[in-house]
Specification:
Layout lengths: L1 E4 L2 E13 L4 E10 L18 E3 L2 E6 L4 E8 L7 E4 L15 E5 L26 E5 L2 E5 L4 E7 L2 E7 L8 E6 L2 E7 L7 E3 L4 E9 L8 H13 L21 H5 L2 H11 L4 H8 L35 H12 L5 H15 L54 H10 L2 H17 L31 H17 L2 H14 L14 H4 L2 H17 L5 H20 L15 H17 L5 H23 L7 H19 L7 H4 L14 H8 L3 H11 L2 H13 L3
Antiparallel strand pairs: 1-2, 2-3, 3-16, 4-15, 5-14, 6-7, 6-11, 8-9, 8-13, 9-10, 11-12, 12-16, 13-14
Helix pairs in contact: 3-16, 5-6, 5-7, 5-16, 7-8, 8-9, 9-10, 9-12, 12-13, 12-14, 13-14, 14-15, 14-16
Length: 709
């Protein structure tokens, strides 16, 4: 169901009720979205923006078929016994609206740092009313830190169980009981405070309702059902052997368990300074924050007072790495990172609006700014408190667009919202290339180049901008089978790489500027694996194969560990050692598509670089921080998988070397084309003729209005 709220036309409700017949349960999923654009004046995205919508409270009422005879509840964390409250019908007015008989209100996380500066509002104040929760029934009151309320209403029609998911983790929430209804405040109001839903932001809530059937007629049966629904995790019976989504068949669990990667993953995720522990450090809880990871690596060069508030926003696709570790380890503890992180990326990190400029709409927000606290930018990178120059600020960008974790999450968890998010991000790539959607269209409406640039507008070679855009399109094609995504990805590949590139001219040894070329070559490896999986060994496959092998040959002769040239790095941190693992991945991937003698050289160089990367990484005092983990949890998998596999020589290496390929495409971005055209009288004449057209002028004014800051 979809709907809007009266005059608040930009406040969108998307809901669904899914019945699970074998469980005698239904899952109510409710998404509340502010479809307005943020105003983001000056490229700043703070709370208090004119595009925000303020809410006092949001939730739902569940009306029961008859009066509640007895109300039962238990704390899901303890589940040792039920408490119950007999309810008389004398106060019922026939509509289920009467005085409140029982309630539980989770006002904050209840953790040690419950009032962290992470929870500041648009005025920079933390206004949480108290620590933990308060439970009231009759004249009694009970207080505590954290509660997962499992509730059962016994009526004349049988017992009905209710449990809102993530009750304390995504505070503030409240459950209130009336004689014939249950009110669940998913965004609970308190002390006249408001909840600010930023422009393009949404939040999804889940409520389980278990209805009576022959298996769950009694209260204790419902308790078991509610516990299972609240705390269940994914069961992995076997590792899929040939996911096109991954770069290689995954290693076996035993191989992983005895590796340095397994030890690293344990500490990075579950250690005393790992991802889960760091949630508590800055209280990464609440309806907006839960699921994101604390960017602990930013503390190293942060100059302010601790605790620093810094959000990671899934950089380098941490979600992807965690899912791969979950598959191989079969350890359900990973679910406590994976599921909240996926939900957070889908709801909070993606800009869900059509009303902004085409380069921002439906894009993924950057992680918050390096070595600065987030203040009131929440998860949107740029805050007015950090603006020191007029050039400060920005918005969603092609260099931060990670979809593989969401795609794999959809394949394994079946969450349709993850699929929609991947398509949203892939369509964003296509939209940002549409020159007719920019104000420059009056001179030139060709492709913008904004999806393939990295570091500067005039660089369209191998880099993370092009890598992320191509990868998003490949993921969308895998999810839908729509060929337009694959064809657009191939257009971008031909724009950015060629088997006969002058690699020396690209300055790839300039680490600060070009380090991410290895991300791009990884995506070429993924493209080849997908094409081979579907038996599509066409000319484009050969084009990409030769390109990958050519760059790998250059790497064998020119690459070394980044920290061997530490004097060239602005911040020579453990992140550089982590990025060295990408070189290993590229060389091992390329070895699958090269002649045997060449492949052997690739593999030897890869193993040497991996050993150096581990050595350099572990000499740092904090090697298990989230930025290093996001890279290594994925790259370490490919190292294990590809190092143990035999060299797989692609048949095209022998049979199609004579195939003619396209010449190198010389791409010029839209902005440069416009500048060049306006250097001539003919260009100015074209501009004058077009702006005198009323329709063209009207469209120009409309786009300038959308592109305003």
């Amino acid at each position: 169901m979809r709907g809007r709220f009266g005059k608040k036309r930009d406040l969108l409700l998307v809901g669904s009720v899914t019945h699970y017949r074998p469980l005698a349960a239904m899952l109510m999923t409710i998404t509340l979205r502010n479809s307005r654009r943020a105003r983001h004046r000056g490229g700043l995205w703070d709370l208090g923006d004119p595009g925000s919508i303020l809410l006092s409270e949001f939730g739902l009422d569940i009306e029961l078929p008859s009066a509640i005879r007895t109300w039962y509840w238990a704390d899901g964390w303890k589940c040792l016994s039920w408490d119950c409250l007999p309810i008389n019908q004398c106060d019922d007015d026939g509509n289920g609206e009467s005085r409140e008989l029982w309630s539980v209100f989770q006002a904050s996380s209840g953790g040690e740092n419950w009032n962290s500066v992470n929870h500041i509002d648009g005025q920079g104040q933390v206004r949480l009313p108290f620590k933990g929760y308060v439970l009231r029934f009759g004249k009694e009151e009970k207080r505590g830190d954290r509660i997962t309320p499992l509730c059962v209403a016994a009526t004349d029609f049988g017992a009905i169980g209710i449990v809102p998911r993530r009750f304390w983790e995504e505070f503030p929430k409240r459950i209130s009981v009336f004689p014939r209804s249950v009110r669940i405040a998913l965004l609970a109001g308190y002390d006249e405070q408001v909840h600010e839903l930023q422009g393009g932001e949404q939040k999804t809530f889940n409520v389980w309702v278990v209805y009576p059937d022959c298996k769950t007629q009694n209260v204790h049966g419902l308790l078991s059902q509610l516990v299972g629904l609240s705390f269940s995790s994914v069961t992995v019976d076997h590792i899929p052997s040939d996911f096109p989504e991954v770069l290689a068949p995954l290693p076996c669990t035993n191989q992983w368990a005895n590796s340095r990667l397994a030890e690293f993953a344990e500490k990075a995720a579950f250690g005393p300074t790992g991802i889960l522990a760091n949630r508590e450090k800055v209280d990464e809880f609440g309806w907006r924050h839960f699921g994101d990871t604390y960017a602990d690596h930013e503390e190293t060069h942060y100059q302010g007072s601790l605790p620093l508030t810094s959000h990671y926003n899934n950089q380098f696709d941490l979600l992807y790495g965690c899912i791969l570790q979950r598959l191989i380890s079969r350890d359900p503890r990973w679910d406590e990172i994976i599921v909240p992180l996926a939900n957070h990326v889908i709801d909070i990190d993606i800009y869900h609006t059509d009303q902004d400029r085409s380069t921002f709409n439906h894009g993924l927000f950057w992680m918050t700014d390096h070595y600065r606290t987030a203040y009131t930018a929440t998860h949107r990178a740029f805050s007015r408190f950090n603006a020191s120059t007029k050039r400060y600020g920005g918005g969603p960008c092609n260099e931060h667009n990670y979809t593989s974790g969401l795609a794999l999450y959809y394949f394994l968890w079946g969450d349709e919202r993850a699929k929609e998010a991947v398509l949203e991000l892939a369509n964003w790539v296509i939209a940002m290339e549409d020159g007719s959607q920019t104000p420059y269209f009056v001179v030139d409406c060709g492709p913008t180049g904004l999806s393939t640039m990295t570091s500067s507008h005039d660089y369209h070679g191998p880099g993370r901008g092009a890598a992320n855009s191509i990868n998003a399109l490949l993921d969308a094609w895998l999810l839908t089978g729509e060929k337009r995504y694959l064809e657009f990805a191939e257009v971008l590949i031909r724009r950015t790489v060629h088997p006969e590139d002058n690699i020396a001219a690209l300055d790839l040894r300039n680490a600060e500027l070009r380090w991410s070329y290895t991300m791009y070559l990884e995506v070429l490896g993924k493209y080849l694996r997908i094409k081979r999986a579907f038996g599509d060994m066409d000319t484009m496959h050969e084009y990409v194969r030769r390109s990958l092998v050519r760059y790998a040959e250059w790497m064998v002769d020119n690459e070394e560990p980044y920290l061997a040239r530490a004097e060239q790095l602005e911040y020579p941190t453990e992140a550089w050692a982590a990025q060295d693992f990408r070189k290993t991945t590229v060389l091992l991937c390329a070895s699958q598509y090269a002649a045997p003698e060449v492949a052997a050289g690739f593999r030897n160089k890869a193993i040497a670089l991996a050993e150096a990367a581990w050595r350099d990484l572990l000499r740092f005092p904090r090697p298990h921080n989230v930025r290093a983990a996001a890279v290594i949890l994925t790259q370490g998998i490919w190292h294990l998988a590809l190092e143990q596999s035999s060299t797989d020589v692609c048949c095209t290496a022998q049979n199609t070397n004579g195939r003619n390929l396209w010449p190198r495409e010389m791409f010029i971005p839209q902005r440069t084309r416009v500048r060049n055209k306006l250097k001539s009288p003919r260009g100015w004449l074209t501009l004058l003729l077009r702006v005198t057209n009323p329709r063209t002028m009207g469209r120009l004014l409309y786009l300038l209005w959308k592109w305003r800051n």
